[in-house]
Amino acid sequence: MLAHILNSINDFFWDIPFLTFIVGIGLYFFIKSRLFPVVHFGHILRHTVFSSKKEQTTKEKGTVSPFEAVCIAIGGSVGVGCIGGVATAVATGGPGAVFWMWVWAFCGMMIKCVETALSCHFRSRNEKGEYYGGAIYFIEKGIGRQMHHAKFAKGLAIAFSIGFVAQFLGGSQVFTIAEILNKSFGMNMVVVTLIYSAFLFYIIFRGVPRIAAFATKVVPLMCILVVLGGLVIIAINYQVIPDVLYSIFHDAFTGTAATGGFTGAAVAKVIGDGVARSINSNEAGQGSSPFIYGSADTVHPVRQGLWGSFDVFVNTIVVCTITALVVLSTGDWSTGVKGATLTINAYESVFGYGGDIFLGIIALLFGLTTTTGWFAYYVSVINHGLRKKPHLRDRVISVFRYIYPLPNIIIVSSIVLTGNGPELFWTIVNITLIAPVFTNLLALFILRNKFWQLFKDYKARYMGVGTVDPNFYVFYEDDPEAYRREEAIRREGRDVQTKEMETCKANQ
């Protein structure tokens, strides 16, 4: 009964109207930028992964470096959704889902650039000198203050926050990890969840600095491993790759007829599964990774936006595509199996038991980098909500460390004990995406003129296109009036903290 209700909700929202809204905004930014992520992909590479540390940073101290930010962001997005989520999209939506995953990926490269740039521009600095940014920051300051729509901005920020927090209840990473280890090694999924949660707590206990250190070591390694493993399988099955590519493009516009255990999919289903999995994997438009990108020490908001574009490219165009081609080239996608089990079967067909071990290691790395990265995102949300009450903020963050792993245990245990499978699980994930995606993309469109101003300024300063306006404020707080307002908030926070400390001393 519950499964039927949730599937109905998912089908209702992830249909043509909502998909038109999502893809339409993505295409707007992509086309108006003159296909910037594609045409200037070389520029993106030169000023991200191939740039020097000196080029990227400012003289001010940020919370994290640009490279640490992108490692946390990629770690937060390149999760087990790239294993179980992509496989489920192919199993339910057919090969055509991969095409629509690509469509949103290219649009998403620009969308991620936009939301990252706005997040950096409108970011806040707390009384400790730490920078935090994200959707709720540019909604409040951009729509609320600069555009003078305070009530609308407040409602939009609340709606986004509720949807964003709902994803906290998803538990997608640990579910897929538990599924893989159960299928491969017969391990109890609930026990796996408990052990995983203990590792998670160890990493997040010391906060964002430890998360950043963990991500910079693990993220490059895990991306290399999954690319190499997938390419081996694709190379072995190279003869069927032309047919696979044909089916991806053909079925994207025709749907897929039923074959084997596959029930077939209508075009709307194909598009919905492809776009939903693309958003869930690369998080473009979801409003999540800008929370950490907004903390980066960067010379220009759009410069950090380039890292966002690179993030989407690595996640979807590289990692997710390889997973999809692995599943399709082995032929297991039409057997009726879904979720991570489908990916396991594909790896087993080539590597045997070694495929189980390989995916088990990859899943653990993917899961830990994602769940720790999302902890950093929620810390940013807490900092925004309680920035006028720093003492309470620190207490909430401290308590949240202990609470954060609990939904993993609850969700996995519930699904296992009720006998439901991965298809229902990914339906739940789809539903939790609706509110943050809608509100975030709406905010980006409302603030489009501010982004184009930043974009124009960046091209003038760093690409030799146009003339630099010396009166343009690159960052929100470069405006003296905005700085005074933000400093007043920080001063209020320091005063409150001082009073609380004095009260504590008096009560001792």
Order of helices and strands: HHHHHHHHEEHHHHHHHHHHHHHHHH
- Main-sheet strand order equals 1-2
User: Helical segment tally?
Assistant: 24
Q: Give the uncertain stretches in residue-range form.
A: 257-264
Tally the beta strands: 2
| Biggest β-sheet strands, sense, barrel | 2 strands, antiparallel
CATH architecture: Up-down Bundle
Q: Termini distance? A: 56 Å
- Tell me the radius of gyration: 22 Å
- Looking at CATH, which topology would you report? Amino acid/polyamine transporter I
Strand fraction: under 5%
Can you give the helix content as a percent range? over 70%
In CATH, what is the class? Mainly Alpha
Q: In the residues, how many domains can be counted?
A: 1
Mean pLDDT score: 80
Broad structural category: mainly alpha
- Shape verdict: globular
Description:
The chain has about 500 residues and is mainly α. It has a single domain (about 1-505), classed as Up-down Bundle (Amino acid/polyamine transporter I), CATH 1.20.1740. About 75% of the residues lie in helices and about 0% in strands. It has 24 helices and two strands. It has helices at about 1-15, 15-30, 35-40, 40-45, 55, 65-75, 85-95, 95-120, 135-145, 150-165, 170-185, 190-205, 210-235, 240-255, 265-280, 290-295, 300-330, 340-350, 355-385, 390-405, 405-420, 420-445, 450-460, 480-505; strands at about 125, 130. It has a two-stranded antiparallel ribbon with strand order 1-2. Strand 1 and strand 2 (about 130) form a beta hairpin. Helix 11 (about 170-185) packs across helix 12. The longest helix is centred in the C-terminal third of the chain and has 33 residues, at about 355-385. Residues about 255-265 have low confidence and may be disordered.
